[in-house]
């Protein structure tokens, strides 16, 4: 089972919006050097909504190449069309992704049975394990625990990224899923508590900025060392909050540019971080000791 700190990686872009592959390689090395356990390429944080299919797959392929087998690569390959999600999954597998992260279909608001059939069909057709991704704040549709438990019986569906931030709901799942089914928090502010309750890791935005601390936090929380986990989390609390002061990944890309890790490029309809938000993001970076 893949555990620990999994970064929802930003996609570096030049000022004109083109993907900066040199900066992407440097980011991959930054994460490997600082203990990140896995990289999610081209998820929501990677601006998947504004990359073409060709760009999407090229970024996944580049991350696989740069990682060179040292840690696992998870490709964001969901969609609101089942056929499109299957195609993106197949292309991701062909360029070497180890896992597939498949989001709840957005905009078309499927029923619970529709969600079950969607993910079952993807898993039936995938040559790599599927991690489900429930983020109702973005998709509107919300996958119930009952549907997750049904899907957890599929041999090719091996985990869930839960971005609801609902710890009571998470605890119910932790108590009921099969022992080999991985549960990852997709909500940095509640990630520590999620892991102390029995979760297996975090697919993290904060890890973009503070990978070493996020790795240490995950090790402590998964190991049940609550005091140590709280001490680390206290340093990260500002980032957990301020990296969502504007829609993700706007603050994360601003912070990484401030750290000279990437250029400041971002694609419309997202725009650079507002001047009114930047002081709080900078203060959170200083609190975490990354600036």
Overview of this structure, please?
The chain is α/β, with parallel strands linked by helices and 291 residues long. It has one domain (4-234): TIM Barrel, CATH 3.20.20.70. The chain is built from twelve helices and eight strands. The chain has helices spanning 21-33, 53-67, 82-94, 112-125, 136-139, 145-151, 167-176, 188-196, 211-222, 226-242, 250-258, 278-288; strands spanning 4-8, 38-41, 72-76, 99-103, 130-134, 157-162, 182-185, 201-204. An eight-stranded parallel beta barrel has the order 1-2-3-4-5-6-7-8, surrounded by six helices. The relative contact order is 0.14. The model has no long low-confidence stretch (mean pLDDT 97).
Sheet with the most strands: spatial strand order: 1-2-3-4-5-6-7-8
Strand element count:
8
> Distance between the terminal alpha carbons, to the nearest Å?
33 Å
CATH architectural group: Alpha-Beta Barrel
Oligomeric organization of the protein chains: single chain
Rg estimate, integer Å: 18 Å
Order of helices and strands: EHEHEHEHEHHEHEHEHHHH
Notable characteristics:
TIM Barrel; 12 helices; 291 residues; 8 strands; eight-stranded parallel β-barrel
Tell me the layout of helices and strands.
Blueprint lengths: L3 E5 L12 H13 L4 E4 L11 H15 L4 E5 L5 H13 L4 E5 L8 H14 L4 E5 L1 H4 L5 H7 L5 E6 L4 H10 L5 E4 L2 H9 L4 E4 L6 H12 L3 H17 L7 H9 L19 H11 L3
Parallel strand pairs: 1-2, 1-8, 2-3, 3-4, 4-5, 5-6, 6-7, 7-8
